[in-house]
Design a protein that fits this description.
single chain; mainly alpha; 5 helices
Length: about 160
């Protein structure tokens, strides 16, 4: 199958699923919206695996985007309520806001993991800084029969430098 056709079909699966998701949200049916969202994601992943066109970076982006959509939906369905008196008044519910914030936090994880894996700024944890003023470290002796010569012994001419 043509590579462009695979990508168009993959995108079409997501678009149809999100249209069904939003249409059920407009009817205030979050349970059906979750069914559409989850089944769309499962079908999209299976299609990508069958067609050998699955990319982890795109998957992380789609998972994060759907998590943020779900968080916004939870916020507006359970976190905000319009009350009749006074006219136009809005009441915020802490439970709905907390659920939306928690969902938004967990939706950041795939983005952060992919960002960390692609980061070029990774440096080794322990890179010792070499100072120019520090004397070089003394070499270790292999045998106990040897000892280091002092400067005076080296200048005397009685010893060979090895």
């Amino acid at each position: 199958m043509n590579q462009n056709l695979k990508k168009i079909a993959s995108g079409l699966i997501l678009v149809i699923g999100f249209i069904l998701f939003f249409s059920s949200l407009l009817n205030n049916n979050l349970n059906l919206a979750l069914v559409y969202l989850t089944s769309t994601l499962i079908f999209w992943v299976l299609y990508g695996l069958i067609m050998d066109d699955f990319d982890v970076r795109i998957f992380a982006g789609v998972i994060s985007a759907t998590g943020f959509l779900l968080a916004i939906s939870i916020f507006f369905i359970y976190g905000v309520e319009e009350v009749p008196h006074p006219v136009g008044a809005i009441v915020f519910h802490a439970g709905g806001i907390a659920g939306a914030l928690g969902m938004g936090l967990f939706s950041l994880f795939p983005f952060l993991i992919i960002h960390q894996l692609n980061s070029d700024k990774t440096t080794p944890l322990s890179t010792p800084a070499v100072k120019k003023d520090d004397p070089p470290p003394e070499p270790e002796l292999v045998s106990e029969d040897w000892e280091f010569a002092t400067e005076e012994e080296l200048q005397s001419g009685e010893f060979e430098v090895g």
